[in-house]
Design brief:
The structure is a homodimer of 522-residue chains. By secondary structure, chain A is an alpha/beta fold. Chain A starts with a helix and ends with a helix. In chain A, the strands form seven sheets. Chain A has a five-stranded parallel β-sheet. The first copy, chain A, is built from 21 helices and 22 strands. The radius of gyration of chain A is 24 Å and the shape is globular. Chain A has a domain of 320 residues: Alpha-Beta Barrel (TIM Barrel), CATH 3.20.20.480. Helices cover 47% and strands 13% of the residues of chain A. The longest helix of chain A is centred in the middle third of the chain and has 22 residues.
């Protein structure tokens, strides 16, 4: 397995160019050096969230959840809202799954969920994709989804591929779910994520994934897809379909990314602290419901507190408020020692321009530094989550390499304090270029970007005056032309196609050269 | 004075659009919630820096400094290096100026230097300026410097204007110094900064500034320009000219931005911790030298630890390593309670693109959060400090508004926990749009960008599909056409022009309409 991982690393490195894994640090970078809330702040927010769960509660619980909850000491108020006593909440938190593995199809991509180790994931449900050549948007399709998965498969800093766009070319819910899962499982061997429309699709999806692996029960043993389930809609109301999906997933051993999306000023208070109170209450409420059905089931208890631009009421993901909310939510869930993920990198800009760059960096670095297990939406999203861009995806991945370097921090050891080197050099040659320590640390202390340009103005003009978007566009073109993951055998693929209405043409999933060969052979 | 400040704020707001000062917080935002070093890390770096000062010392001390130092317990080693005993260093740190005011020409722009209150400044000595229309660089001129000062005068988030470009159209050192100071003092009423070539220019510059104000001794009373002096060049060597300039400045009551620029892997160790050791040693060494000449003189004891891209040896300001070094240096100087500033926002990108955006945001937010008194180079710099861009300047200013919002943090008060609002809304209308708290907090909890676009993809296409660079370019055009600060009377201006070889044409400093009027009147 170690060998497989190394081989995989080498492959990623060659695609990503000169970025050194050594300098970035191992997958799952420690976070937590930025804390937006004081200790007393976290305690007050948690106490207020407990208060909300006990006195306001959550409405529209499904019959299953309600009955289990009443057995465990919950009560219903006059309006039928389910009220959660503090003791049940605390018991649930104490007994929740903490250390578990989220599998990849390839074992090299297994993710160990451990307190304070930050991983980066995609996410989103954009309905548009940026056409970089035209500089405009068009509806996203199933083929886009497959291409995005292939692209993400090459990105060294992303550990979880959740479907970033909706295949808007499929209307039927069942076919949408099946084809979404097929396209992403075919495009990348990383851990997968997708929402699922209805609970009875869960079984079919597991069947599809087993067929892809070629072994019945394979998914149950190494579940490599998490369902994204919004079991609670804000403010404080269970959603029936999603609740049922989550319960079906729990029964199928499918990990759950339990997400809630309270939007400050719209479906949550305008005060950021108030949005965190509601967000924590909702995250915990959803966790309790799932644990009632299946205690200790692997759940990423995510709150995704969002921001409204109060001039228009529209969602806005690019401001400092979003960075604070995501970091604050991460700190709260870390305080409770619950596996969690928060959203970041949700630029409001429509293109990968200067605005996108600073909006993304600001929220990603603060969210990541605050120590969630996952940063979602971390690459590719634009237009306040309405749009996705392949160019943004590769750009953001490289940005995350820099951010992971900052998360590794400054190592203070006797060696690295370098007092002897300073003495020797100051009294000697007067520069550190090429000395022993410099050569030794060249790969481990520094990250070298590949797409980001560090040349002089003159050299830059000479090589064509490209901006980052243009360079990223070339990179995307190369990857899509050449990278066709082949972890699924033709035999398994055929069986899936026989059993399910797969829309992605087979020849679309093979290198063009291979298709010419096939055509020639026929 | 309060009134003047408010008037000035209003003016800035109208130029900057809808950005609310309330949400950003007052000038001088508290920092310190991000700490890249552990407590033991700071102690070890400080101990190592003391060790370096005591055992390696600094070479090439000027005669003045050397004699004063030997009187205070320093010694010379066999190579003539000046060695600093721990006791002198600690006495200097204990007696260093801490709380002081850096004046603006307008009192509204006075900066109170206070532990942990972060201000943003320009900086740099670029020799090229980006021509946005051609997308290429040309040598920077005196007229550019004046325009940059005017532009900065309108930027609400910048409190100190240090000359970002060199007037490369002036060869003579004396004329360069005089014209640089004239151009920036004419362009903005904010606190000013510039390097000065030779010590005997200092007196003339003070004379020029007194003439501009129209009162002898005015500068001495309210020194509104700090000299940027690199009294130590790395590794650990005094620079004669700059040392003499600093001493002349101290005698003229001119505050000193004492900066050192050790470059990791080139003029400092490749290990980041080692670069911090040397940087702290050099920052303190420079501080000791100035305090020997004038104890308690206002000094911003800045270390600007830089990064080399070790593939080429060239300076690189855009990576995660730079963000860590700047934040680490800030934390070290804050640990010593010394007024300090660090560089950030030094993008390697040549244009205001996605790369520039993320490189800048990453270093500015981490540097600012770590709590220096000043973040230098914070707006406008590109091309690894070789280039400056007016468009980048206004873009970066708005980015800093978002960053200042994050620095304000999440206020946790009973009111803001919003438990009553959550209860009322969850049981009632189901949304928070337009409720009392939302309307109340709309201005104080949220920052609304003006240049950054938050519209939908369709609206964005309809309004011309502009990226941020294009919108910034329009803003720059408007400001330069209309904003001609008139704080210097014609009478004073004439006296300066009579006394000194001022190169900036008088008509260049007036609105075109006024020039037509003058021309008509003649």
């Amino acid at each position: 397995m170690r060998r497989a991982r190394n081989r995989d690393r080498r492959k990623n490195r060659s695609l990503a160019g000169a970025i050194s894994d050594d300098a970035i640090g191992p997958t799952g970078t420690p976070g937590g050096s930025y804390q937006p809330l004081t200790k007393s702040g976290t305690e007050r927010i948690y106490a207020a969230a407990l208060d909300v769960l006990a006195k306001v509660g959550i409405k529209n619980a499904t019959l299953t959840v309600r009955n289990l909850a009443l057995d465990r000491g919950c009560s219903l108020d006059a309006e039928g809202r389910l009220l959660f006593p503090k003791s049940l909440v605390e018991d649930t938190i104490a007994g929740a799954a903490r250390d578990f593995v989220l599998h990849g199809q390839s074992a090299a991509h297994d993710i160990e969920v451990r307190d304070g180790h930050v991983h980066f994931a995609t996410g989103g449900a954009a309905v548009k994709i940026l056409d970089s050549h035209l500089g405009s948007y068009r509806p996203s399709t199933l083929a886009d989804l497959y291409d995005l998965a292939r692209l993400c498969d090459t990105l060294p800093n992303i550990q979880w591929f959740a479907r970033p766009v909706v295949a808007t070319d499929i209307d039927d819910w069942r076919e949408l779910d099946l084809n979404t899962v097929y396209a992403i499982a075919k495009g990348t061997t990383k851990h997968l994520g997708s929402s699922i429309g209805l609970d009875h699709h869960v079984g079919e999806i597991v069947e599809l994934l087993d067929l892809l692996v070629g072994r019945e029960g394979a998914f149950h043993k190494r579940p490599f897809l998490s369902v994204h389930a919004t079991t609670i809609v804000s403010p404080l109301s269970f959603a029936e379909d999603s609740s049922n999906v989550a319960m079906a997933a729990a029964r199928s051993n499918m990990p759950i990314l339990s997400q809630t999306g309270p939007q400050a000023g719209a479906t949550a208070p305008a005060a950021l602290a108030g949005t965190l109170v509601q967000s924590v209450a909702e995250s915990i409420g959803a966790l309790v419901a799932i644990n009632l059905v299946k205690p200790g089931h692997p759940v990423i208890a995510s709150g995704w507190p969002f921001v409204s631009d109060l001039r228009t009421g529209a969602f806005s993901g690019g401001g400092g408020e979003q960075a604070l909310l995501s970091a604050g939510q991460a700190q709260m869930m870390r305080f409770l020692r619950l596996p969690t993920g928060v959203p970041a990198s949700m630029a409001d800009s429509k293109v990968p321009d200067n605005q996108a760059g600073y909006e993304k960096a600001l929220s990603v670095v603060l969210a990541a530094m605050s120590g969630p297990d996952f940063v979602y939406e971390s690459v590719g999203m634009l237009a306040s989550l309405l749009g996705c861009s392949m160019e943004a995806m590769v750009i953001d991945d490289e940005m995350i390499a820099s951010i992971r370097r900052t998360m590794r921090g400054i190592e203070v050891t006797d060696e690295k304090l370098s007092v002897d080197e300073i003495a020797e050099t100051a009294r000697g040659v007067g520069h550190f270029l090429g000395n022993r320590q410099t050569l030794e640390l060249m790969e481990s202390e520094y990250v070298y970007p590949n797409l980001a340009d560090r040349s002089s103005p003159d050299d830059w003009v000479e090589s064509g005056s490209q901006d980052l978007w243009q360079r990223a566009s070339e990179r995307v073109g190369e990857v899509l032309k050449t990278h066709f993951p082949s972890h699924i055998s033709d035999n398994c693929d055929d069986k899936v196609r026989l059993r399910f209405p797969i829309r992605l043409p087979k020849e679309r999933t093979r290198p063009p050269s291979l298709n010419r060969l096939h055509a020639g052979g026929n």
